[in-house]
């Protein structure tokens, strides 16, 4: 039986939700933007009206206002966005339990087994679209196809508030003439390489040999060829499926540039403290750490290393990250943001080869102390016990945080 896959995409997600929460904003050019005072003054989302004025996601507020002087700036409220995202998923759940999230605003649905109850894939898509609009006051675009890649492509073809179907019999006529960048997995770098090879459309990708694409693009080349040929067949995860955690990270963009190792150490410690808590709550340990730095010239620097032994201690992680940072970063420019990531994760307690010259016992003691601190904080609040540095930073610094992906 041929699969029926839907891709549901909330149109202009953040901006649409803001309009649903505040109807006076409907029909006006609005942009959801980070706080310019905290140096996050970029457009995160825009309404259809702002889009028609040329406002683009990722540009600065002042650039957007040059294009649209009447643009209304709205600060983001992620708690509300999460509430709407969950509400949309609850509606999807009425039609199938095979739901796979692809970000806050997008989901794949496998409705193959739902056709006897609700009709064809197109009919189910229309029913979902109308239900979302009626109950949540926002719109979605839905793509319908026989695999996840073409379902996502279909949802992108017609927006906003539309249903588009790409079927198996006629997909070559519909898909192959489209530009190569329409295909999932073709980013800026890949597109540049494809254009240098005179590969302009999805059909051009499909007509090339997979061996040649592998030679110029690696494994990604073979994957793109399979996508273009309609051979992608990965399953849609059940709604209760939880994929294994592969890394845990946290990052901060600071209100003012960091200018010294001492300032960087305070920030690294705060980030590592959060990562350690996440590792402990997930019963994981990290075998490696990574630090990503964006300097004042917007240049990125990435460093990573293997740890002597797996750990979930915040203090042990922070010391390793700072050691790596102090050895690798040359301070050519001041620092705008730092992201710390725990990588190569394993279940806590996984056996490993002991190092005769290591400090395993000391790290084990740190882990026990921090685990006890977690329990006290959970019961009595965050301020009941903590590292002195963390308490100092909370009282003297106002960082604007973002979770690293």
Order of helices and strands: EHEEHHEHEEHHEHEHHHHHEHEEHEHHE
Distance between the termini: 36 Å
Helix share, percent:
40-55%
% residues in beta strands? 15-25%
Q: Biggest sheet, strands in spatial order?
A: 5-6-1-7-8
Q: Helical segment tally?
A: 16
Characterize the largest beta sheet: strand count, sense, and whether it forms a barrel. Answer: 5 strands, mixed
Which regions are unreliable across 5 or more consecutive residues at pLDDT < 50? 394-405
* Alpha-beta classification: alpha+beta
Instruction: Give the beta-strand count.
Output: 13
> What value does the average pLDDT take?
88
Commentary on this structure:
The chain has 405 residues and is an alpha+beta fold. The protein has helices at 13-21, 48-52, 61-67, 78-93, 115-118, 121-136, 148-157, 171-175, 188-196, 202-207, 210-217, 219-228, 261-281, 314-328, 360-380, 388-396, and strands at residues 5-10, 30-33, 43-46, 72-74, 99-101, 106-110, 140-145, 163-165, 248-258, 284-295, 300-311, 335-347, 400-402. Strand 7 (140-145), helix 7 (148-157) and strand 8 form a beta-alpha-beta unit. The relative contact order is 0.10. The model is unreliable at 394-405 (pLDDT under 50).
């Amino acid at each position: 039986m041929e699969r029926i896959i839907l891709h549901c995409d909330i149109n202009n997600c953040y901006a649409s939700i803001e309009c649903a929460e505040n109807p006076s904003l409907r029909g006006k050019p609005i942009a959801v933007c980070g706080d310019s005072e905290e140096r996050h003054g970029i457009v995160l989302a825009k309404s259809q009206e702002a889009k028609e004025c040329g406002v683009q996601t990722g540009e600065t507020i002042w650039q957007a206002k040059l294009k649209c002087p009447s643009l209304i700036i709205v600060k983001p409220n992620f708690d509300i966005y999460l509430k709407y995202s969950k509400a949309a998923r609850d509606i999807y759940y009425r039609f199938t339990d095979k739901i796979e999230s692809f970000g806050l605003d997008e989901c794949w649905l496998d409705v193959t087994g739902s056709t006897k109850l609700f009709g064809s894939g197109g009919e189910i898509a229309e029913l979902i679209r109308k239900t979302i609009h009626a109950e949540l006051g926002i719109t979605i675009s839905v793509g319908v196809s026989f695999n996840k890649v073409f379902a996502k492509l279909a949802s992108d073809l017609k927006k906003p508030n539309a249903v588009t179907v790409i079927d198996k019999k006629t997909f070559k006529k519909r898909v192959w003439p489209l530009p190569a960048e329409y295909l999932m997995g073709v980013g800026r770098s890949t597109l540049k390489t494809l254009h240098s090879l005179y590969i302009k459309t999805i059909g051009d990708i499909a007509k090339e040999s997979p061996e040649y694409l592998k030679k110029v693009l690696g494994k990604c080349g073979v994957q793109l060829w399979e996508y273009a040929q309609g051979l992608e067949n990965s399953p849609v995860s059940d709604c209760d499926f939880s994929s294994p955690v592969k890394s845990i990270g946290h990052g901060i963009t600071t209100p003012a540039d960091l200018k010294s190792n001492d300032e960087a150490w305070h920030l690294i410690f705060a980030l590592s403290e959060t990562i350690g808590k996440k590792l402990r709550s997930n019963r994981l340990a990290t075998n490696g750490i990574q630090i990503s730095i964006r300097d004042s010239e917007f240049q990125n620097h990435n460093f990573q290393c293997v740890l002597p032994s797996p750990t979930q201690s915040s203090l042990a992680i922070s010391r390793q990250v700072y050691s790596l940072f102090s050895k690798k970063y040359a301070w050519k420019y001041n620092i705008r943001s730092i992201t710390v990531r725990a990588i190569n994760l394993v279940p806590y307690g996984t056996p490993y080869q002991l190092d005769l010259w290591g400090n395993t016992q000391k790290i084990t003691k740190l882990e026990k102390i921090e685990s006890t601190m977690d329990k006290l904080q959970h019961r009595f609040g965050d301020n009941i016990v903590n590292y002195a540095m963390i308490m100092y930073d909370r009282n003297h610094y106002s960082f604007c945080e973002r979770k690293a992906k």
